[in-house]
Amino acid sequence: MTRFWRKFLANRGGAIGLAIMLLVLAVAAGAPWLFPGDPLDAVARPLLPPFEDARFLLGADRNGRDIAAGIAHGARVSLMIGVTAAAGAVLIGTVIGALAGFYRGWIDDALMRFTDAAQTVPNFLLALALIAVLGPATWSVITAIALVSWPGTARIVRAEFLSLRERDFVLACRAMGMGDGRLIFGQMLPNVASSIVVLATVVISIAILVESALSYLGLGDPNIVSWGGMIAAGRPVFRTAWTVSAIPGFAIVVTVLGVSLIGEALTDALNPRKHVAHKPTPALRKEHP
Predict the structure, then answer these.
(1) Contacts of 34 (CB under 8 A, 6+ apart)
(2) Is the distance from CB of 76 to CB of 31 less than 8 angstroms?
(3) Does domain 24-30+60-275 have CATH number 1.10.3720.10?
(4) Interval 172-195: pLDDT, tens
(5) Residue 147: which of 160, 161, 134 has the closest Cα?
(6) Where would I find the H helices in the chain?
(7) What is the pTM of this model?
(8) Closest listed residue to residue 158, CA positions, set 100, 74, 224
(9) Helix, strand or coil, per DSSP, at residue 66
(10) Torsion of CA 254, 217, 234, 75, to 10 degrees
(11) CA-CA distance, 267 to 32, in Å (whole number)?
């Protein structure tokens, strides 16, 4: 574990991404104490500029809602939806990819054709259709994002299982009479865990962006504050009070950047090929006559 963290922190981008996410997590965790009360309540003068009132450092929107409180409470919503939706998508994709790569044959063909069908419709359009059917609520946003984000994970896990199924340790387990379930989830799946972890960071970034876009279009839960909804609230006054939309937009960019940097650092730290030391070729001894 110490070696892993040394490799991870050796990546400057990973260290920056980790610092960003620790800050975002601290703000999200401390939101109820930093900004008690409902962040949707009007507490200040409408369109209060940033840094004009010490009580409302980031100003207020056109309804008099504290932007700083919205950023803090919105971080909780974005992270919760992003992590939960990513977990669902990775779980679905991992199961489908593992079964397809392990069994091959008609099972592989059926699951991959189903994956192809799921990718024929653009993810965001499919999410819009699902939200229209399920209704604008937090659970429906999580469900929609999970159901449109799993195909990429399924394809990568399938490729990993195809390369593992003929390895010596898999053949030995089969010779010992190990059952398929134990072999898939107990022996082969741990060998692709590093790839799944890296994929999860990608899906979290996508989930945060999709949730923000859905909230911007008014398809998020209207009873909670979200960064996408805050951007939408500032759209009518963008020319006169651009910070109302710019501040939550900046929060989205920084959070997605932090998750992406962590994902890149995990790719380097969990890839042993990047850390193989190559010994220099010894110089040939020059023979003297």
Answers:
(1) 27, 69, 72
(2) yes
(3) yes
(4) 888 888 888 888 888 888 888 888
(5) 134
(6) 2-10, 12-34, 67-103, 105-119, 123-134, 138-149, 151-164, 168-175, 180-182, 193-216, 227-233, 243-269
(7) 0.85
(8) 100
(9) strand
(10) -40
(11) 35
